[in-house]
Please model this.
Amino acid sequence: MELNTKRGNLLIQWLIGAGDLVVLNLLFLVVSHELSEYNTDTVTGYLKEILLLFNFCYFFALYFFPIRLHESVVFIDKIVQRAIFLVTFHIFLFSSCLVFLNIGNALTSFIVIFYITSVIIFPMWRTLVRIILKIYRRRGHDLKRIIIIGAGKNGMELYRVMKNELAYGFIVMGFFDDNAALKKVLPNYLGNTGEVNDYVSRHGIDEIYCTLPGTQDEKILKLLNFAEKNMVRFYIVPEFYRNVKKSLVMEVMESIPLLSVRREPLQAAYNRALKRSFDIVFSIIVLITIYPLLYIILGILIKIGSPGPVLFRQKRTGLYGQEFECYKFRTMKVNSEADITQAVKDDPRKTTLGDFLRKTNLDEFPQFLNVLYGDMSVVGPRPHMLKHTEEYSALIDKYMVRHLVKPGVTGWAQVTGYRGETKTLEQMAGRVKRDVWYIENWSFFLDLKIIIVTIFNMFKGERNAY
Model:
C-alpha cells in the first residue's frame, strides 16, 4: 500500500539521514582502521565514546544544513555544495570537541584524512540518493496529489512543467475553472471553483496551485482560507507571470511584500569577497606558473607568424558598462577591422597559430592579468567589444543585465555551447539568457564546475571557436 504523501516525505528525510550516518560512520571506521598503525590509539581506545560524540555532532550540524534532497527541484551543484558545507561544519564541531577534551592533538592526522575522504565520498553519496529518488518518483511513487485552479495560460504552462517531469514529485489530478466550455477542451476538467472544497476533502489533495487573475481576489481568499483550515498547502501563481517569465524573489518591508525581478547572490558582500579572493589566488597561480612559459613560447611563434605585438589589446565592456582594456594573445594579422568585425570561420585575418590558440582557449590566458587588476573575474559573462555592446543592447532586452557582474575569462554560456561566433540575433539572445541565469544562480561551486568543464574543453578543442 502506498504511503501517505506527507508521511512519505518525512520518512524519506529520515531514511536519507540514516543513510548519511551509515556512510559517515563507515568512513570513520575505515579511516581509523587504515591509520591504526600510526597515531590513532586514542580512537581505538575510546571508540564508542568518540563515535557517540561524532554522531551527536552530525545531528547538530544537520540543524544548520538540513536535508533538502526530497524537495521537488534541487540542482546537482547545490547538492554537492550543501554536502560539503555539512561535512565541513560537522568536522569542525567534532574537532572542537576533541580539542576541548584534550585529545585533539593525538587525532590530527586522522581528522585531516577523514575530512578529505568525506569531502569526496559524501557529496557522491548525496548525489546518488537524489538520482535514486528521481527514478523512484518517475515510477509513480512519492507523488504529491495536486489540483490547479484556473485553466488559463499560466495554468496550462504549470500543468506542462509538472506533467513533463515526474521526478519533481507531482501528479496533477486536474483543473478547476468557472469556464464550463473548457470541459470539452481539457482532458481532466474537474469542475468549477465552487466544487474545489468537496473534491479536496474527498480525494486527499496535498497542494493547491491557484492561477486565477487578481480580479478574482474574493474567490482566491475563500480558497486560501479553506486550504489553511484543512492543512493543504496553497500556492499562487501571479497573474503577471505570463508577461514576466522568470523566478522572482520575495522581500518584505515591514508587512509589505516586495517582489524583486531577480536573485543576485553576488550582491552579498561575503560572496563578492569569496569570489574576489579566489580570483586573486587563482590568477596569481596561473601568472607565476603557466603564463610565463606560454608567453615565451607563444610570443616567439606569434612574432614568427606575422609582424606585430605579442598581445592584442581591445576596449571591451565591463562591470556596470565601464570600458576596460582586455588582453589576449594576438591571433590575427594586424588589421583595421579588429575592433568592429567579429572573427568568423575561415577568417583570412587569422594566422595558422591563431586558429589553434582560439580552439584551445590559450589566447585568453593574458586575461588573467585583467583578473588580477580587478577588471575581470575568472568566471563570468564574456566581455564583448564596444560595438557589439552598442548594437545588441538596442536589440536584446536583457543584454545589459549581463554587466551587473564582472566579465569572465570563461563563463556559463561558453561551456553550454555558446562560445565563438554569433551568426544570428537568436544565438546572442541565447548567450545572454545563459549569462543572466549565471548571475541569478551564482555559487562558488558553480564557478568551480565551469572552470573544470573549460579545462576539459581546452584539451578536447572547441568546435565553435573561430
Q: What stands out?
A: The chain has a mean pLDDT of 83.
